[in-house]
Amino acid sequence: MKTIVLLTDFSESGNHAVEYGYHLAKFLQLDVLLCNAIFVPVPAAEAGGFVWSTNGFDGLIEDSNEELKRLKKHFEHTDHSSGFHPQISCVNQTGRLTDVLENVMGICDAEMVVMGTHRKGLGHFLLENNTRNMINSATCPLLLVPPVASMSKVKKIAYATDFSYPEQDAKVIAQLVPLASAFGAEILVTKVHTLHEERADHRNGVNTILTKVKTQTSYPDIFYKPIENEQVGTGLSLCCEAEKVDLLVMVHRSHDFVDVILKGSDTQKMAKHTSIPLLVLPDANGKN
Questions:
Q1: Would you say the C-alpha torsion 73, 77, 81, 83 has a positive or negative sign?
Q2: 123: closest CA among 144, 138, 141?
Q3: Per residue in 179-200, is it b (16+ CB within 10 Å) or e — as a string?
Q4: Which H helix or E strand runs over 210?
Q5: Phi and psi (nearest 5°) for 273?
Q6: Is the pLDDT confidence value at 182 over 70?
Q7: How much is the average pLDDT of 246-268?
């Protein structure tokens, strides 16, 4: 059965993301794999003349196993709801997070990877190397969950794009339909544009794409609303706040729309307003 991989370092924000991911798995009827990566900087230790003892290393493994078991028992003993209950498995491995995840993806049929963030706001955590490396290397959807993300039901999903690749955008919107359908949520498609940039022919083209997707998927709750703002991050933040968006979705393409969010200075402004999870999709066209 398909699985959601829930990454945690056992911090408060990491475990909050695991909690969010578990509830998501219940709605989507997917199994859960709890995962912890144990990173020991061996080269740095050797350079400083320090030798990591076998007992110390084994202790880290043992502690990780116990924490994963505790999380598993937490869900098994506290989930008294009716309906689907995910099967929960655990894995911990040593190495960099990206390497561990690559190994894990080889042993399970992962539908999505979920990880938490350690600082408040979208702008801060997107600038952290660990998260950026995860985004760059992800081969399946990566859900980034801020510490303040609500566990409430997803009612509106926003897909933000610049429509540089309209055919791929149509496919992405269609792929979001099963997720939206599971929650009974609306899909809001949006583009942040500068003053007077939004032309009538562009809007008509987007509406044609959405009409086609609605017909193909038989899902009527798909809408388009462009946002006028000089700064992409600020515009997205205001859109998510005004539209009461519960989940923001973007495709990661290097030197493209998401890259502006990853590196742009306005992510700091966006961070002050958003508290919703961000679902980053890999570029199906391989343009990363």
A1: positive
A2: 144
A3: bbeebebbbbbbbbbeeeeeee
A4: helix 200-217
A5: -110, -30
A6: yes
A7: 62
